[in-house]
Amino acid sequence: MKAFSYLRVSSRGQIDGDGFDRQRDKIGKWAKANGASIEREFREEGISGANELDGRPAMIELLSAIAENGVRTVIVERADRFARDLVASELLLREFTRLGVRVIEAEGGNDLSAGDENNPTAKLVRQILGAVAEFDKTSIVLKLRASRVRARREK
């Protein structure tokens, strides 16, 4: 099976960290264990998972490559690397499903694009996890904002 990989880190400070290496390693292990060949990697550098398609250049490039290439599988490390906003995630997954593309989560091997008609339980679990990822992102943003405010007050 030919596949593309999709990697994303949220902030500019994470670009040189271990995020890409960790994601690539997890995706590579899943691909090897499942007979998949990674044909190309798409990376979002410092792009929020809450962004919709128009704010995600690598995702746009990925969709274009799918239209031109016969690859019908995309592998991400975890669902929150694909998107951290429930609505954005569902819209992206709908587009991939429309194109006949499976989106696989390497951590756990879940098919994120499955479940709409054939397995409503899978869809429910995906959406709950998507809501949790969105909640987590919002919580982190609020904590960082509060920390910055405290730091300014202490100066």
Number of DSSP helical runs:
5
- Main pleated-sheet profile: 5 strands, mixed
The count of DSSP E runs of length 2 or more, i.e. the number of strands, is: 5
Order of helices and strands: EHEHEHHEEH
Strand order of the largest sheet: 2-1-3-4-5
Low-confidence stretches: none
**Distance from first to last alpha carbon:** 56 Å
Strand content: 15-25%
Radius of gyration: 16 Å
Structural class: alpha/beta
Overall pLDDT confidence = 87
Short note summarizing the structure:
Helices cover 51% and strands 17% of the residues.
Task: Report on this structure.
The protein contains 5 helices and 5 strands, in the order E-H-E-H-E-H-H-E-E-H. It has 155 residues and is α/β, with parallel strands linked by helices. Strands 2-1-3-4-5 form a 5-stranded mixed beta sheet, sandwiched between helices. The longest helix is centred in the last third of the chain and has 35 residues, at 120-154. The model has no long low-confidence stretch (mean pLDDT 87).
Itemize the secondary structure elements and their pairings.
Elements (H helix, E strand, L loop, with lengths): L1 E8 L9 H15 L3 E9 L11 H12 L4 E4 L2 H4 L3 H13 L3 E4 L4 E2 L8 H35 L1
Parallel strand pairs: 1-2, 1-3, 3-4
Antiparallel strand pairs: 4-5
What distinguishing features does this structure have?
155 residues, alpha/beta, 5 helices, 5 strands
